[in-house]
Amino acid sequence: MMRRGVRQFGRKLPPQQMTNRGVAAAGTIDKDRGKGYLPPTVTITGDTKLTIVGVDLEIYPAPGETDDALFIWLPEERVLFSGDNFYHAFPNLYAIRGTGYRNVLNWSTSVARMATFEPDHLVGGHTSPLSGRELATIALREYSEAIRTVYDQTIRGINLGKGPDLIAHEVKLAANAVDKPYLIEFYGSVSHAVRAIYSGLLGWYDGNPVALNRLHPGVEAEKVARLAGGIKKLERKTRAAMKAGDFQWALELADHLKWLGKAERESAREIKIAALRALAAREYNAPNRNYYLSYANELESGQLDGVWF
Q1: N or C: which end of the chain has fewer CB within 10 A?
Q2: Other residues' Cβ atoms within 10 Å of the Cβ of residue 58
Q3: Domain containing residue 297: CATH number
Q4: d(Cα 285, Cα 204) in Å, to the nearest integer?
Q5: Which of 168, 202, 236 is the last residue of a domain?
Q6: Domain count of the chain?
Q7: Which residues in the chain land under pLDDT 70?
Q8: How far apart are CA 140 and CA 70, in angstroms?
């Protein structure tokens, strides 16, 4: 998870490749993590009202990105602090660094509850605040609805017997939602969310018996090479896919090629580096882009070998 987290956030990318972490600048400083930590003296187990140095505040449990998430309401100022359950991007319902299942229904419900407060100011855990009661309330409602519609569409696909890859290609946000600044897939990804929901509810098995005992990747690669007309033809087809701009297909073919010999392994490494950088160049989602580039750099520097590539 640590290795994958470094890639997702682009922590080791050179300055010319750094852009953004999704909801934070690429160059944020986090070497002081943990300094000044004070252990809690009050445990919040339910809706709680407090007055601290003359400021009235209300604390509400709001499971979402994490089970222990909460939001804070300042009733006099009508300010709502949402924590990481709301920010200006489609939510990261699944993080590619690796996470346990984030309960999507709970997340949607928590944001819907925030909307009932109709705040004058909405302050997310990341990105800029939203001011204006109507704007903030609509944003929270649409955020909750977007999460819920991804869940509902995924469930419909599951009930039709579809697997996660097919459902991930089919689920879409509503046309009037995709261009909202707080629903653009710059941090979270709808397709990643679909796969996470599927796995979280049903586990890894997609119901197709072909997946019960799949071939070893090396054996499958040999059979694919024979279908292509031999190893050399498979390599030529992989390079042709790169030349045609079919970078995802080239990447997938290279994953077969790497099993077929030392020379082919080096060809696969070269192709994967180029394909990953080409995919990164046209990728809008920040974690995806960072991961593509980080992985390509690791391949180029020789950090990845064996099962890692």
Answers
A1: N
A2: 15
A3: 1.25.40.880
A4: 25
A5: 202
A6: 2
A7: 30, 305-309
A8: 15
